[in-house]
Amino acid sequence: MRPVRAADEVTEKAAEVAEKAGRPARWQRVDTWVALGFALFATLVTIQLWIDPNGRVLAGNDDDHGIFLFMLAHAERVVFDGAAPFFSDRFNVPVGVNMMANTSILALAIPLAPVTHFLGGGVTVALLVTGGLGGTAFAWYWVLSRHLVDSRPAAWIGGAWCGFAPAMISHANGHVNFVSNYVLPFIVWQVLRLREPGRVRRGGVILGLLITLQVFINEEALLFTALTLGLMAAGYAAMAWSEARLVWKHFSAGIGVAALTSGVLLAYPLWYQFFAPGNYHGQPFEPTAYVTDVASLGWFSRQALAGNAALTRNLSVSATEDNTFFGPVGLVMVIVAIVMLWRSVALRSTAIAGLVLLVMSFGPQLRIFGYDTGIPLPFGLISHVPVIDLVSVTRFAMVPAAVAGVLLAFAVDRAGSFAPKRRRLFWIGMVLALVPLIPKPLPVVQGDPMPPFLTEGTWRSYVADGKTLVTVPLPDVTSGRTGQRWATLNNLDYPTPRGYFMGPADPPADDTGSWQAPHRYTSDLLWSVREYGYVPAVDRERFLADLDFWRAGVVVLIPGSRNEASLRSVLVEALGEPQSVGGVELWPVPSNG
């Protein structure tokens, strides 16, 4: 029976691969078919969005779909208009938005700026989500098949799990950054290779470049990966110190080279993120708000073939945060894999690291079936540590989801040496685990169409240089998604006040992170009118002062808005009777100077 490959065996495998001049043609064909299969499956998952990418919106989280349209439109302006990459002056006028303090995905959005420019941001979103799912699956398959396991089916199962697990499908409902995880497997592999002699400089530089690239895709995922690898290294050293002490010097030196390389390249971007205007600290919610429910481990996600959205909703914080949901048999098979591989120190430390991150995802106190038990957990001790306080706690569970895929790959690899009866029982378990988790196509809704006022460029006659186009409802998180979507699908050709982004709640008095611009009289007034339909007396002087602050050139009422008649009444009281132009009612705002 072939023993489970420990860390030293991983190194030997890498050396064997490096010595080969090339791979057999049949394996190249297998890799090609695997890549095409993952791409096709990812397309099937996103097919409803592909039917009309600029007209449809991901239903699971249309707000976050909108914020990534903003990121893509910003990158389009960087490439085609020479805009600053780390700052946008087109949203939240006149203050602007710190793009490094947001999930600006510059490493993805800038190369795809031509797609956004010529085909529209909706096409780019569809491309990124599809490529994220399929690309992540293939990246894990590539690393597993070449460096970690012998069996191509084992690598395929590991890649498929890591790319299409419930957590990934859930985040595909709007989190472009969290489905684009194809750099992470190579970061993991480069870290493992640092234990090899002669890898300090070259390996450290390569790792530093990968880290830099990942920062411009998703810093949160990079943090999770760093924590996991740190726990793995600590666990391995504790359980196999005699082996670890032989490599710790050049391993540490390689990490140092990587830190220096990435530190030099990221010094200014990270300074801008944490110290330039628009920076913030903490999140607009407490750590107890978004945590992993223990019961979700053995349940099905809402997008799984066996899932039920009504039931899952009680165990998950949102449609984009089904971060566990392995299913009952899936959970059993993950446990079986851990038991099978426990004698390997390397894989045992991997499993322990995943379990630690899983416990962290439970938050400060244990939650079961939606009930907060009050039982304290270790995360309560570190919940307010800087950087950790920027993380949505339940997302720590994405680590054990990926670890599960890697462990299943190793378990399948080892099962090949089982006796026929035992091997058959193992594969029955795998089928029962994986088939119910097959994802259904992502749900979509039709977005509000843009009126001729925008599509025909009529707005240009009303928005002079330095002025903004103000849509009502105002672009804000949850309540003004149409106004934000219109601006981003026009690639931010016109600037607009407010918007959905991350920034300080009320600077300089309060720099706590917020999903929207600081409150103003007019923004609060229009929000309450839209929400409740009640039309209060309007303080016209304060209303006009806010329009002046926002540098408004024209105010446009979005047709079909919630409580549209009430919103119109407020605008008429403040600005007089509107003009009807290009399918909208609008109010030109005279300049005060």
Gap from first CA to last CA: 84 Å
| Sheet of most strands | 4 strands, mixed
* E-strand count: 12
Strand order of the largest sheet: 7-10-12-11
Would you tell me the overall average pLDDT? 92
- Report the total helices: 24
Radius of gyration: 26 Å
Task: Return residue spans where pLDDT drops below 50 for at least 5 consecutive residues.
Answer: 1-6, 17-22
Query: How does the helix and strand content classify structurally?
Result: alpha+beta
How much helix, percentage-wise, in residues?
40-55%
Instruction: Please identify the oligomeric state.
Output: single chain
Shape: elongated
Please tell me the total number of domains.
2
Q: Please report which band the strand proportion falls in: under 5%, 5-15%, 15-25%, 25-35%, 35-45% or over 45%.
A: 5-15%
Which labels suit this protein?
disordered N terminus, 593 residues, 12 strands, alpha+beta
Secondary-structure map:
Layout lengths: L6 H13 L5 H21 L1 H4 L5 E3 L3 H20 L5 E2 L8 E2 L7 H4 L3 H7 L1 H28 L3 H13 L1 H6 L4 H4 L4 H10 L6 H16 L3 H21 L1 H35 L33 H4 L15 H14 L3 H17 L3 E4 L2 E6 L21 H18 L4 H15 L9 E3 L5 H4 L12 E5 L8 H9 L10 E7 L3 E7 L4 H12 L7 H10 L2 E6 L6 H12 L3 E3 L2 E5 L5
Parallel strand pairs: 7-10
Antiparallel strand pairs: 1-6, 2-3, 4-5, 8-9, 10-12, 11-12
Helix pairs in contact: 2-7, 2-8, 4-6, 4-7, 4-21, 6-7, 7-8, 7-11, 8-18, 11-12, 12-14, 13-14, 13-17, 16-18, 16-19, 17-18
